[in-house]
Amino acid sequence: MLGDGSLERLKREGRIVVVGASLAGLRAAETLRAEGFAGSLTLIGDEPHEPYDRPPLSKQVLLGRAAADRTALPRLRSVDATWRLGVPATGLDMAAGRVRLADDDEVPYDRLLIATGVRARAWPREAEAELDGVFVLRTRDDSAALARRLEEGPKRVLVIGAGFTGSEIASACRERGLAVTVAERGAAPLVGALGGVVGAVAAEMQREHGVDLRCGVMVTALEGDASGRVRAAHLSDGSTVETDVVIVSLGAIRNTEWLAGSGLGAGPRGIACDAGCRAFDIRGIVTDDIYAAGDVARSPHPLFGYQFLSLEHWGNAASQARIAAHNMISESTDRIPHMEVPAFWSSQFGVNIKSVGVPSLGTEVLISQGALRDHRFIGVYGYQGRVIGAVAFDQARWLPFYQELIETTAAFPPPFPTVDRCSDGQRPLDADFPDPSVPTHGPTVTLGGYSPADRRMTFTPAH
Amino acid sequence: MVRIAVDLNRCQGYAQCAFLAPEIFTMHGEEALLYAPEADEAHRAKLAQAAAACPVQAILVDAVDVPAGAVSDAR
Ligand SMILES: Cc1cc2nc3c(=O)[nH]c(=O)nc-3n(C[C@H](O)[C@H](O)[C@H](O)COP(=O)(O)OP(=O)(O)OC[C@H]3O[C@@H](n4cnc5c(N)ncnc54)[C@H](O)[C@@H]3O)c2cc1C
Ligand code: SF4
């Protein structure tokens, strides 16, 4: 591609295929056209819908403030493309440069972007998962079905798993006046993402809003009635919860099965790619024509010792997709690295929660502003003497400051005196993350070590 | 019909949008923003105002009219 005009030819008449037509796929397609790609562009998506936005599915939609089928993503520019929706990709032939589809069609590419994201982990016992009233929440259709059932006014809703999505669901149900039980195997909600100190605040918020929160327990079985409707759940502490709606919120599984045997470095942890979004093959050699972006990708991050990070974050999907698209049609010297500081938001029980960096990498946390008991504070996370992450509960305005501390690898604990630091914040506390060898379902950021090949990974279900 | 998304990583919760287009943007609690992901054509002007007023440009709206059927399975 060095000055022989092949890049110009690619931009003029090449074929780019995007698999996964959601946030990352759409933003990549827009960027390709914005940057002058004039060849053929094909988007392949297994969902029958045009790209839509997922964050409202556990918030506005469950609150009854928006319809699930009215969440399509805004188009930031027009995109001339062929959309193959409702058809999953089932295989990849790297040597021939072709994507195989479920309808036996094959789509050739010169450049491929994989943005197949993740799906909700289903309840592991299949017969129980199929009971009427048992839901997961990942897609527009999931959200529509759940919202419809909540409309009917169930007597009790059981949420299994108190990660961000589970907690948001519990919050929306309480706001609608529904009785809610939350069962969480860890010591507190959000503990995998934010640790035990901040998790305790999340637990307090749930209980103050009337959630029957049960931590340190597992749901062992779901029970149906004669008509196949769920009626109860059995817990590991011997108790039983009578319920007519169960929402399984046990985290996500990366959609990489369709790449099995292709030779690409794809597995249960996602698709390994370099900082420029180029995917690795299983030998650890970077490909020239295959890129990955969004929830399915894991890439080395310079701020975190170049460990592979997988991020299930909206902002990451949008920006990584733009970078992948840019790099696909650029000379190597014009490529840009994906090294944005990770950022995430959630809102639950009326509190705006935002984080920057990777709190789950922290070993210590300092409450640098506000107070835990007011549910209004900033927690700064430290790792090996530097600031690695921060979380804000109703204090979002200060986060850019903390982001800068992370970007500049500032020392932890930060030496600055803060305006409203109270007794919580006199010294760092043990951040109290669960033992990393115990799988949790809600970290939303996964550190993947240094190996691009992902071959020694064994898959441990969360329940 | 206009589609809307807000990049809530950027949003600072200053609520300018909620003043300018309360039909679409409301505060939920002290600083969490809830928005309608889709607004009527009638609100387009207000929406544009709100998006322009957002100090951190967090509000994303349709830049183009996508005619119904622009996304279809081309099999
Ligand atoms: C309920 C909910 C609430 C959320 N809230 C927040 C939030 O508050 N803040 C935040 O930062 N993030 C949030 N997220 C996460 C955010 O939505 C994701 O990070 C984002 O959707 C990732 O986009 P993506 O395009 O990478 O993947 P996805 O959105 O997962 O899209 C992947 C697409 O590829 C399709 N696909 C999979 N396999 C194939 C195949 N073989 N062939 C063809 N197509 C395939 C999938 O069906 C899907 O349509 C939330 C997610 C959910 C589900
Ligand atoms: S104007 Fe912008 S920053 Fe302020 S609340 Fe609205 S979206 Fe957020």
From TrEMBL, chain A:
Domain of life, per lineage: Bacteria
Domain FAD/NAD(P)-binding: 15-321
One CC-aspect GO term: cytoplasm
Domain Reductase C-terminal stretches: 344-413
Region (Disordered): 432-453
Swiss-Prot/TrEMBL cofactor(s): FAD
Keywords, in A-Z order: FAD, Flavoprotein, Oxidoreductase
Gene Ontology MF, one: oxidoreductase activity, acting on NAD(P)H
Stored InterPro entries: FAD-oxidoreductase/Apoptosis (IPR050446), FAD/NAD-bd_sf (IPR036188), FAD/NAD-binding_dom (IPR023753), FAD/NAD-linked_Rdtase_dimer_sf (IPR016156), Reductase_C (IPR028202)
Protein name as it appears in the record: FAD-dependent oxidoreductase
From TrEMBL, chain B:
Alphabetical keyword list: 3Fe-4S, Electron transport, Iron, Iron-sulfur, Metal-binding, Transport
MF annotations from Gene Ontology: 3 iron, 4 sulfur cluster binding; electron transfer activity; iron ion binding
Record flagged with keyword Repeat: no
Cofactor(s) listed: [3Fe-4S] cluster
Source superkingdom: Bacteria
InterPro entries referenced in this protein's UniProt entry, alphabetically: 3Fe4S_ferredoxin, Fe-S_cluster_ET
One Pfam assignment: Fer4_13
Function in brief: Ferredoxins are iron-sulfur proteins that transfer electrons in a wide variety of metabolic reactions.
Stated name of the protein: Ferredoxin
Lineage summary: Bacteria, Bacillati, Actinomycetota, Actinomycetes, Kitasatosporales
